[in-house]
Write a structure and sequence with these properties.
about 500 residues; alpha/beta; Rossmann fold; 9-stranded mixed sheet; 3-stranded parallel sheet; 17 strands; about 40% helix; globular
Amino acid sequence: DLGHYERFMDVRLNRACNVTTGQVYAEVIAKERRGDFLGGTIQVIPHITNEIKRRIALVAESLDAEIVIVEIGGTVGDYESVAFLEAIRQMRSDVGRENTAYIHVTWLPYIRATGELKTKPTQHSVRELRSAGISPDMIIARSDYPVPTELIDKIALFCDVEPRAVVPLVTTDVLYEVPLVFEDAGVAPFLLERLHLQARKQPDWRAWRELVTKARTAKPALKIALVGKYVELHDAYLSVKEALTHAGLHLNLDVQILWVQATDLEKDREDAWAAVREADGILVPGGFDSRGVEGKIKAARFAREHKVPYLGLCLGMQLMVVEFARHVLGTEDVHSTEFDPSTRHPVIDLMPDQRTITEMGGTMRLGLYPCVLQPGTKAAAAYGVDRVEERHRHRFEFNNAYRDILEQAGMVFSGLSPDGRLVEIAELRDHPFMLGTQFHPEFLSRPTKPHPLFVAFLQAARERAQQRWARSPEAVEASTRPVEAEGEASSSSSNHKLL
């Protein structure tokens, strides 16, 4: 959800914007240990609720925000959200009624047997919310079917809100249409009136409406194999999925994601390899744990040997390096110490400042860091600038002890930290597009401003697709069989070896 707020509003949020129960309780306990409460008994009210309110105020202060949108997750009545509901109830008294607006999102179930939408769950939800001391100013009624006016009036009557404050939100095939639905329903004018604010200027929705039109227009299909280990739950890769969609809309392409389970590649399952062979590009996203790692390495090898455009994100970049070192430099005893601490050649290793840390929580390299791009590289061409800032989330990094030998073998380290110590981007010299990033470019992609690396990746995939379309199906099948299925021992022709 937080990512959608960033994408739709085109803002960069900071770590203060994500408030979890664990963070709140940990901070309150730490304050108690320091003696901040002078030996007083810790209670949900006021200590926990005060900490929640402090963190909400911190968001406004740290971002100099005039309006803070506070989303309480879960369902009204959940035990987990009781303290958060009480905190936002108190905030109306703290900042003033004219400075707060409560918006309640509900669901209108459809009874297929009778062919009708039911409002009773919404009525009970509002009643439960009122028992917590909160009366909604606006109700967003989610539904899979159009909501008739009589139901809107019924919700308004029983939930004690104005009819114009009941906004039906019907499921749409294009997610980016939702802001336009809100605009047409008059949500913004209602909230401005409720908060006693004046609009500085009228919104210009032309680019957004054009985006929705593009999304609904027939486009050439481009197939991208996303090789991961959480592919059964597509939302696990939501930011990557959205970044591909943004770049596809920019290039007027219909990006079709082929979800490939990495462990199926390890088992040489034909359906998984068929998806990889069919793809115009291969993307390996970030991840943790060793499950599926060898399958991702197989995918990287396939992309390298068959010149399939490849984009590796975080772990996807690290495994691209592992694969290259194994099969181009000619030794299998190469790995990341994250998965094999005793590997002879740790081309990916723990960051030096992490070696003495025993507790993993909160120790990763997190946030926005600068990256200097090397002239004449694919990365520099994609960005069109010589320095960028990207968001990171990792503990392991490329081992510089192997930089020279990998460069001699054809790997290019096209993005570095300003001091030159950390490898941020790696790419292959003799490949149409095989590039990996230590950072997560998907976090900075926006619907109307796609990320340059995703655009460059899809451009390369489109070129491959055009070549594939020009060839016969038999030629395509023959040229893209998986390496292991062909029984090849190694694709290496390099004279560079790891010692």
